[in-house]
Amino acid sequence: MASLITQVKSKLFIHSTRKSLHALDGAYASLLHGRSLDFEDLRKYEYGDQVRDIDWRATARLGTPLVKRHRAMRMHTVLFVVDTGRSMSALASDEQPKKDLAILATGVLGVLTLRHGDDFTTVYGDSTKVRRLAPGRSEGALEHALRTLDKAIDESSAPSDRDALLSFATRTISRRMIVVVVTDEAPVTSETERMLRRLRVQHDVLWLTLRDAEPVLDHSTRRARTDVDSRWQVPDFVQGDQGIVQELTAQREADAAHLAEILTRLEISHTVLDGQDDAVTQLLQLLNRRSNARL
Fold this sequence. Notes:
It is built from nine helices and eight strands. By secondary structure, it is an alpha/beta fold. It has two domains: about 35-70, no CATH class; about 75-295, Rossmann fold, CATH 3.40.50. The termini are far apart.
């Protein structure tokens, strides 16, 4: 198998300009490192830097915008909570494997984690078992984590159990972390909300929803769709049926609105990833929103 972290890096650079990559990098730093009073050095202003970091005296003296950098107060740990149940073996909205989108999202944030000297750990599983990988702080550890997720999804025959994953995190993680939940569009339950409320008390939480492919396609596609959980194949005669499409769309929008209301009320940053081509941009927008919200 080709290196997964290499694939992640290639997508990260291909789909990000130098400026936007710096903004993603900078937004991560603003989000996770906090602000120390210990001055470190000055450097030239770059796209994505906060205006409040500009050293106006040095800027006036040298005639070019300069920003102050401060030494990070402490290292952080990012906890990736990734659903690896059989629902993750389905297709994402871009008609590509949802598994690959989950690995890309985890990998992009994992690369940023390592770049800033932080460590990470991963919790993953399905309805039969939840597991946790040892903390890591190297590309080798990240590669191992991504390969573990890849294999777990491929081998899982059990349903997803998002609530079990969240429960595991609340029960076993005592030190404050940055918790990144990677999951699909399955409707949230009252237990989901209860677990999130508990997590939010102790941790900083991000929620990444992987959008599912449309279950009912236009007639012109002529491609069969099978539900990975029930193994029920969508009959040909319902493909492209406008009444069914409208009903499914309304239900999806209602579920999404309900989730967004819960996450917003709990002050949990969240975004929906539509596919691999847009994932880096959507992650960038998420981190920038969090960074700007803390001005």
